[in-house]
Each structure stands twice: as structure tokens, then as C-alpha cells.
Amino acid sequence: MNGKKMTDMQLQEIKTQWRNASIALSAVVLVVLVSFFGTVKELGLTWWDKPEYNHCLLILPIIIYLIYERREIFQKIAPEPSWLGLLPLLGGGGLWLLGDLADTNVVRQFGLIIILQGCILTILGKRVFLGLLFPIFYMVFLVPFGDFLVPALQDFTTVFVIMTLNLFGIPVFVEGVFLSIAAGDFHVAEACAGLRFLVATVALGTLMANVAYKTWGRQVIVVILSFVVPILANGLRASGIILVAHWSDMKYATGVDHLVYGWIFFAVVLLIFISIAMTFTNRGLNDGYTDFTKKYWLTNKPVSLKQFTLPLIISAFFVVSAPFYISIIEQRYQTFANNILALDEQTWGVDVSMTAPWKPQYLGASQVFHLRHEEQDSEPIDIYAAYYKYQTQDAEMIRFGNGVAEQDIWARVDNSKVTIKLGGSNISVNEILLQSAGQKRLVWYWYWVDGRITASNYKAKILDAKAKLLGGRLDSAVIALSVPFDDMDIDQKRAQLAKFAASLPPLETMVTSAP
Asked: What domains, with CATH codes, occur in the chain?
């Protein structure tokens, strides 16, 4: 009788601690959502607006389901605060700060998720955290990431299609991601890269690995399959579309058929993937996720509401520190508010922004120049410059949608890095070959950030963050040079651009302060 009464008391104590912990956790999560409202809003808009990440709308319901599957935890483990949670809180805050300084959405968003995970560990303690480890880990799929894979996926799909056409003995002419066969021309565009299917399948495969399998070996196999299958499937899809178009003399698998056949194929592949993966599942319907017979899970300590208060206050302090520090840094923006970039016509050329066929796009720039420099006995060189007095969340130089070509008009044929003379030094810059309606353009471009030149998107972001954090130059710019070319004279055009680039004065000498 006393044993039964003691058990009832323990259950009541666990229930009371969960009530107190829920109050504290709800309060600190509310502080997080308010403090990082801009980042939360970015997440929601990306889930809704970008088809590649529509599946993220399902992640929260899935996490709730995963926690429900582990509901036994709420009856057997009493939450108790852990100061270990301050480590991910500090790390997540630092990551969010770095992302905000570099104006990088995905870094900000990962920082936010790590902050939330740190709050859970701080308030609920390490035993609850370990018991709910997979649902907490699965929160990473709330972050819409993977855009950086698109060029690599395009290239892989192109190679896969070429190998398939060669296998069927169909002659094919290849130029970058453009394919030509006797029946017609094809372009492995960004939308054909298969990113949408890949990120959704990886999220599904990771979920299946936990829900349907108990052993690490099988879980790893399923996760690897979730990467490999959609990539290979996309190659088969693209190859199938071109083969059908070839055999039907372009009557089928083009236009709307292209999309319909693609999605039907993906649906079939997804069903096959699930069917194969389920053949070696080893988790029964009644198998739990935690062995509560072990002593580690049964040792509960009484914790009062007051004992949750201090972790709540300290967590809230850590949470608001990063946004507060950003507000201090933003006060430096006024130092560069009157800066302007002045490019003289004699050196740079005359304005052709209204007539140029090639038009880069950099939204949010403080100033945009599109000039044409006439060359004796050579094609004129188009020069594009976008100058940012300082970069903010609404005015990012390197972001989705910004680039040296309008994506719906110009398509990438190839890209690489070349070393040229800039300001008397050997500098690596980006080279990209573009094509549109039979026209081809050679483009060289680079970034100027914190007084330094770089070709790397990532380094440009880091330099901008460093400048904001350590008091460097906050202004930045992207410079692009372009000439039309054909396959016979591309080396000549490269030499022309190299000669012109070497003659350019340092960009910082062109920046002045407006009265």
C-alpha cells in the first residue's frame, strides 16, 4: 500500500515539474519568437513561397507526432534544468549574429533553431533532451537549405543524360548545360536540377530511418538511399523526357508534358523508394524508443518552480543579447550613409542601362551603373557596377535572385575562375559563359568588400560580417565586365577583358562622401 502511495506521489511530482517546466519553456520560447521575429517571418515566407521548400510546412506537425510517439517520457522522466543548455544558446546566438552581420538567411535560421534547442536543454534538462533527441534534431529540416547544390545537380544531370543518350547511340552536342540532338535542343535548367525532390526525400528518409529502424546500420543505409535515389531518379527523369521527345519527334514530353511526366515519374520513384526501404524494417509497432528499465531514466529529483526561474532568466538574457548587439552595430551605418560611387565616363564608359541586352540584377543597391566602354578595333565592353553603402537584411548584395544575368533570359553554359591583374596584383575572379536566343556572352565579375577583392560568395559574406563586427569598411560593390563571343574568338575576348581590367583604378578611389 505504501509502495503504491509512493508511486502515486512520484507521478504527481513528475506532473507538477512538467507543469512548471512548461511554463518556463513557453515563456523563453515566446522571448525567442519576439526577439527573432524577422528570422521567423523569413522562415514562414520561404516555406510558403518557394516550391522547393513547401515540404517544410509539414515538419512541425511531424515533430509534434514524433513527440507524441514518445509521450511515455512525460510520465516517467521529471524535467530538471541543465546549465549545459547555455552552450548551444551561446553558439546559436553567435551563429545568428554572424548570419545577420553577413546578411545570410540560412545562417540566421540555423542559429535560431540551435537557440530553440538550447532553450529546451536548459529548461527541460539533459535526460528529457536525450529522450526527445530525434524530434529535437529533426528541427533542422525547418531550415530551407540546399540552394548551393543546384549547379552541381545540374552538372550531374547533364552528364547522366549524355551517358544515357550515348548508350542508345543517339548523337548529342553538349555546351555546358545545353544539349542538342537531331530532334531538338534541351536545357538542363535550375528547375530541372531536382533540388525540390532531393530535399523532400532526404527529410522523409531521415524520418523513416528513425521511425522504422532500431539499428544504426539500417538507419544509415536508409539515409544514404534518400540522397542517392532522388539524384539518380532525376537523371533518369531528364533522360526519359529527352528520349520520349526524340522518339516522338518532339510531339511528346515537351511543354506541359515535361512537367506532368516529371511529377508522375517522381511519384512512382518515391513509392518504390518507400517500398524498398520498408522491406528491411526492424522496429515493431509496439517497440518503444527509450528503455525506461535502466536506472538512468528512473532517477528523478524534485525541482520547484523557483528552480526553473533562474535558468529562464539567464536563457532570456542570452536570447536577447544578439539582437541587442546588432542594434549597436547598426549605429555605425550612419558613417557610410552619405557615400557615393563616382565612375567617370572616360575610364569606365557611357550609360547604356536602357538599351543593353545583358542586364545583371542586384536588388537593394544604393547605386547601379551600366556603362559601355568603346574599344578601338574590338567589341565594346559592357561594365556593370552595383554599389552598396552598407548591407542590411533588405539590401543584401549576395542573395537569392541577385546575379550577373536575368535567370529567365540568360542561362549558364559554364562557369570557372580565372586569374587576372587588378590593381597591380594577381586576383582570382569569376568567369561565366551565358547564352540566350543564340547570343553568347563572356562575363567576368568580382566583389569588393571591406576594401578587398574576392570572387567567393562565402568570403564576401565573411568579410562583410568581419567589417561590421571589427569596425572595417561597411560599403561594398560587385563589378562585372562582359563582351559577346563565339566559340572561335573566346580567347581573344578574354585577353581584351584582361587588358581592360588591368587598367581600372582601385575602386576605393572612386568613393566619395556626398555633401
From this structure: 2-144+304-331 (no CATH), 148-280 (no CATH), 337-513 (3.40.1000)
